[in-house]
């Protein structure tokens, strides 16, 4: 049936209720002289001040700081947009124009750089005002409280603004009481606003999905790649995310969750471990929505936290932030000590996919996790120096020297082996083998107060080895896949065939390809970098590609089959921009070798913390609290 006939049919049409509105229209009239141009500005706005989660908690959005929480500000928002839109557009133009007009850049690069930012808005994004949540009655049904007005006079009850609006007054009273109920609870959570010092701005808290198909907030192993967009464009939001994870390090949640891969029940999150994500149904309070594997045993999360935090300190010059998160950095490093099985300073992977490549198993010392660990040790030493902890600075530098020597054993003459296990994939050429190297190249900021004095990262590897590894990745992982027009395949065997040992080893990850290109730029291999990244542009964004514009997937394979549309990791293209705009890296300063015998006290203290954080062996049930209790008894001689 013709839809117009259906609409006009008396049988299908339902009259509107008297006094109701079912639609609206706006119009503007003006006189346009001949050969003239006039513009008419329209604005559409809506006011949805609350964010509700299935846990029963409600948060106010960031904009309510400026427009209130009553939900009646749409007209004011539209009014402000009409008045300010020209100014906003000029600011956007001033930001983008230098990049768009930079003749050194390939034409496709600025297009892709700015368009990949779609995900910061389309990735399920939530930006709260940073206040504790307001509970619904569903979430606090077991708690005592009262809306008693007896302590207030009648004049206080009847607020002038709510006169003759008892419901509004009651709602405000309920909000106040429920906020008070929550105040003490936020200390047992990943609520990073608790780390703000007096006088610091509370910019709010930021959430975005790992992907529209992988609905977990702020997936941390992936944010490691996408965080470059935030630190360059919204640095205060980036610091807010890192504060949340710094708070999460100190969380211990013994409630049990069932793992999908083997059906075992494990603690949701243990003290010292960085969670995989900040949650889904009850973000900040119930972390680790991911349950395929036990991420408390992953080897990349804690090093990625240390690396990101230090990079953000360098990028922002925020010393208050450095001081606030330093205890979490120390605990995160101590937690990892249990994965150094032979005491050589290097962590070992445990024979399952215990890192972001969560279907690609790895065993022993590995190029990816091992490189992140070596870089994290160096970052921890540098950060200790920044906060004035000389003992920790020397101790982590000593551990860095030990671990670096072990890591270099993976070198086979032209690249770093995938791992040291001697298995069928051990000699794989991993595109992402220098991930720690890319993050460790944090440029110093110039200009007085923004510069961290004397902090320059020592290059983890010699320039010759770095360039050799990248050239190998380019020749094998990039050029051997559709003539270099699809990006870098994750794993390639030395014989020039893809590593078929897992789904992910044979995939091309768009975000990882951008990260590899960024590392190439750091090494002054820009032509190679842009050719590598071009594969992602051609596949996702060009007219000749696969139609992924504004929904860049996490992965595709050589058969052009994609996985996980609209994903966080492709924001890593901003790592390329970070590399392009960095000041010239200074030559590393020469540091005196630290002698082990001078670090006895620091080693003893670090080892005690590490022992308390150690996970129980399989089959044993001693909890963290039991360990603390036993340690306390021993200390007081009970």
Fold topology:
Layout: H1 3-8, E1 50-52, E2 57-60, H2 64-67, H3 74-100, H4 108-115, H5 118-122, E3 126-127, E4 134-135, H6 154-157, H7 166-183, E5 206-207, H8 220-233, H9 235-249, E6 253-258, E7 265-269, H10 301-316, H11 319-336, E8 349-350, E9 363-364, H12 367-387, H13 390-407, E10 429-430, H14 435-440, H15 463-478, E11 491-492, E12 508-509, H16 510-522, H17 526-541, E13 555-556, E14 562-563, H18 573-580, H19 600-613, H20 624-636
Antiparallel strand pairs: 1-2, 2-4, 3-5, 6-7, 8-9, 10-11, 12-13, 13-14
Protein model, in words:
The chain is mostly helical and 638 residues long. It has a domain of 440 residues: Glycosyltransferase (Alpha/alpha barrel). It has 20 helices and 14 strands. The strands form six sheets. The chain has a three-stranded antiparallel beta sheet. α8 runs parallel beside α10 and α16 packs antiparallel against α17. The longest helix has 27 residues. The N terminus is likely disordered.
């Amino acid at each position: 049936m013709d839809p117009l006939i259906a609409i006009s049919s008396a049988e299908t049409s339902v009259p509107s209720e008297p006094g109701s509105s079912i639609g609206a229209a706006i119009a503007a009239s003006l006189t346009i002289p001949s050969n003239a141009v006039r513009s008419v500005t329209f604005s559409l706005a809506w006011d949805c001040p609350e964010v509700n989660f299935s846990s029963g908690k409600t948060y106010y959005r960031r904009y309510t700081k400026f427009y209130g929480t009553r939900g009646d500000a749409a007209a004011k928002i539209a009014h402000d947009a009409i008045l300010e839109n020209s100014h906003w557009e000029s600011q956007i133009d001033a930001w983008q124009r230098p990049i768009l007009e930079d003749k050194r850049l390939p034409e496709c690069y600025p297009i892709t750089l700015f368009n990949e930012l779609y995900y910061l808005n389309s990735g399920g994004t939530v930006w709260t005002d940073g206040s504790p949540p307001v509970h619904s009655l569903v979430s606090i049904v077991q708690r005592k409280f009262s809306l008693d007005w007896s302590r207030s006079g009648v004049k206080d009850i009847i607020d002038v603004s709510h006169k003759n609006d008892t419901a509004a007054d009651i709602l405000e009273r309920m909000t106040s009481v429920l906020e008070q109920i929550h105040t003490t609870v936020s200390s047992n959570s990943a609520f990073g606003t608790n780390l703000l010092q007096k006088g610091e701005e509370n910019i709010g808290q930021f959430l975005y999905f790992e992907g529209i198909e992988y609905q977990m907030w702020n997936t941390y192993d992936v944010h490691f790649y996408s965080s470059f967009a935030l630190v360059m464009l919204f640095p205060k939001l980036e610091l807010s995310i890192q504060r949340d994870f710094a708070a999460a390090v100190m969380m211990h949640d013994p409630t049990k969750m069932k793992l999908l891969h083997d059906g075992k029940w494990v603690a949701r999150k243990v003290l010292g471990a960085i969670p995989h994500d900040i949650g889904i149904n009850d973000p900040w309070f119930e972390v680790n929505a991911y349950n395929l594997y036990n991420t408390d045993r992953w080897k990349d999360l804690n090093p990625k936290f240390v690396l990101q935090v230090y990079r953000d300190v360098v990028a922002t010059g925020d010393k208050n932030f450095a001081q606030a998160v330093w205890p979490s950095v120390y605990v995160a490093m101590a937690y990892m000590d249990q994965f150094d099985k032979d005491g050589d300073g290097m962590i070992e992977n445990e024979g399952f996919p215990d890192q972001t490549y969560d279907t690609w198993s790895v065993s022993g010392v590995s190029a990816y996790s091992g490189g992140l660990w070596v870089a994290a040790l160096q970052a921890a030493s540098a950060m200790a120096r920044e906060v004035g902890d000389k003992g920790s600075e020397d101790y982590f530098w000593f551990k860095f020297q030990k671990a670096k020597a072990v890591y270099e054993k993976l070198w086979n003459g032209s690249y770093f082996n995938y791992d040291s296990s001697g298995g069928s994939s051990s000699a794989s050429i991993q595109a992402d083998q220098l991930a720690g190297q890319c993050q460790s190249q944090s440029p110093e900021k110039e200009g007085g107060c923004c510069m961290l004095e004397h902090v320059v990262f020592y290059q983890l590897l010699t320039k010759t080895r770095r360039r050799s590894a990248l050239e190998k990745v380019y020749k094998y992982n990039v050029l051997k896949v559709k003539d270099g027009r699809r990006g870098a395949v994750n794993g390639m065997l030395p014989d020039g065939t893809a590593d078929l040992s897992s789904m992910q080893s044979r995939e091309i990850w768009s975000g990882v390809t951008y990260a590899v290109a960024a590392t190439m730029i750091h090494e002054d291999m820009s032509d190679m970098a842009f050719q590598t990244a071009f594969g992602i542009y051609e596949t996702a964004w060009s007219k000749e590609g696969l139609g992924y514009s504004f929904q860049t997937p996490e992965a595709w394979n050589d058969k052009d089959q994609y996985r996980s549309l609209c994903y966080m990791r492709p924001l890593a293209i901003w790592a390329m921009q970070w590399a392009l705009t960095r000041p010239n890296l200074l030559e590393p300063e020469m540091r005196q070798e630290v002698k082990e015998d001078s670090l006895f006290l620091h080693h003893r203290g670090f080892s005690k913390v590490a022992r308390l954080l150690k996970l129980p062996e399989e089959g044993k049930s001693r909890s963290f609290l039991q360990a603390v209790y036993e340690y306390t008894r021993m200390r007081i001689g009970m």
